[in-house]
Each structure stands twice: as structure tokens, then as C-alpha cells.
Specification:
This protein is α/β, with parallel strands linked by helices. The chain is about 30% helix and about 20% strand. The radius of gyration is 16 Å and the shape is globular. The structure holds guanosine-5'-diphosphate and magnesium ion. The site of guanosine-5'-diphosphate (GDP) has 19 residues, from α1.
Length: about 200
């Protein structure tokens, strides 16, 4: 987090982490659509077969703290095994993380594996696991062979971080996820209580 009192500006770096194809890029595309006029350009690095080669980046301006402009930078990570290093680097200086899990039963092993990798990467970046705000997003709730939320919670989120059910492709749960995270980041880091209706 960077606070620039002269420009009355707070800069936040938020990272969407998770396995390949869980819906991270879709979240950013939906947010980009909604915040027309308040945003910078969404950078999606497209490659054949996989949408995110290095990262997606979406700068976003919001007015949360009275008198301060909050500039948020949303990043995603590439999911595949061979981009391990990018996934470590992108966490550098992160203020908060959304863990986008794929709710499908057959994706559970990968949800767990990439989550453990994320916790290891926190350490590599000197981020304290207990201190960094995390919101879990259980995505693809529209599909058939999905696990109940209670089971996902037990496996992925025993610490009880906030969680949101989502169908990112239809925009459902996307903004709630982002709002939950920003709220948590600002409250934890700036010790400011946010009104309930932001
Ligand atoms: N059925 C369904 N498909 C989704 C949902 N969210 C994303 N997808 C699809 O899942 C695929 C991977 O999404 P993408 O955002 O590229 O995943 P990423 O690899 O995590 O960035 C794409 O084909 C999306 O359209 C969802 O909520 N439901
Ligand atoms: Mg992607």
C-alpha cells in the first residue's frame, strides 16, 4: 500500500490467485465492464490455448475513504505449473488476495495444490499469512458436478476468511468479492471502518 498525502491518494495492489481456468480473468473482465469511465485499460495478455500468459492488470479508481482517492491495481496470475515464478513475483507488495477456486469436484486437487503454493509464495515475499487479507471466491456455481460450499470451506478455508459464491461469467458475486476484499484491506491496514453500503 502506498499513501500519498499530497495527492490524497491511496494505492492498493490486489491479486486474483487460483488454478488455471478457475475464472480469474473473467472477474477482471466483468469489473472492467462495470466501471466504464472510472478505469484505466484492462490489459489481458492473450496467448493461444491459455488466456493469461503473464498477468492481467486492471487499474481502477474508487472513492472509499472520504477525501482520498483509492487507486486499485488488480492483477491475476497464470495458472499453469510452468508459470510458478510469475505467480511468486506477482504477489510482491500485494495488499490483499482473492483466491478464485473452481467449485467443480474434479478441480479440488488443483484448488488445494495452488492454494498451498500461494501460502508458500507469501513466505517467499515476506508476507505474513495471518496478516494478509484474503477472500475466497467459490466460482462456477452454475455447473453440475460442484461441491457444496461447506465442503469447499472445510478443505480450503479452515481459517474462516470471508467467502463469496460466484458465477463470474454472469457477473454474479464478482463485485461482492472485490468489495469484501477492499473493505478488509482498508479496515485492516488503515484502521478505518467502512460504511456498510459501499
Ligand atoms: N460455467 C462457467 N464458466 C466460467 C465461469 N467463470 C469463468 N468461466 C469460464 O472458464 C474458463 C476460464 O476462465 P478464465 O477467466 O480465463 O480463467 P483463468 O485461467 O482463471 O483466468 C473460460 O472459458 C470462462 O468463460 C462460471 O462462473 N461458470
Ligand atoms: Mg487468466
Amino acid at each position: 500500500m502506498m499513501i500519498d498525502p499530497r495527492r490524497a491518494e491511496i494505492k492498493l495492489k490486489l491479486v486474483y490467485y487460483g488454478p488455471s481456468f478457475s475464472g480469474k480473468t473473467t472477474n477482471l473482465v466483468q469489473i472492467h465492464e462495470k466501471y466504464k469511465g472510472k478505469k484505466g485499460d484492462l490489459v489481458i495478455i492473450d496467448t493461444e490455448g491459455e488466456r493469461t500468459l503473464f498477468f492481467d492488470l486492471l487499474p481502477l479508481e474508487i472513492f472509499l475513504v472520504p477525501g482520498f482517492k483509492v487507486r486499485t491495481f488488480l492483477h491475476t496470475v497464470p495458472g499453469q505449473v510452468f508459470y510458478k515464478i510469475s505467480r511468486r513475483l506477482v504477489l510482491k507488495g500485494a495488499d490483499g488476495v482473492v483466491y478464485v477456486a473452481d467449485s467443480q469436484r474434479n478441480r479440488m486437487d488443483e484448488n488445494i495444490e495452488i492454494l498451498h503454493e500461494m501460502y508458500k509464495n507469501f513466505e517467499a515475499n515476506k508476507l505474513k499469512r495471518e496478516k494478509i487479507p484474503i477472500v475466497f471466491q467459490y466460482n462456477k456455481r452454475d455447473l453440475h458436478d460442484i461441491l457444496p460450499v461447506e465442503e469447499l470451506e472445510k478443505e480450503l478455508n479452515p481459517e474462516g476468511h470471508p467467502h463469496v459464491e460466484a458465477i463470474a461469467i454472469r457477473g454474479i458475486g464478482v463485485f461482492r468479492t472485490l468489495e469484501e476484499l477492499i473493505k478488509k484491506v482498508v479496515e485492516d491496514r488503515l484502521c478505518i471502518r467502512i460504511r456498510e453500503n459501499v
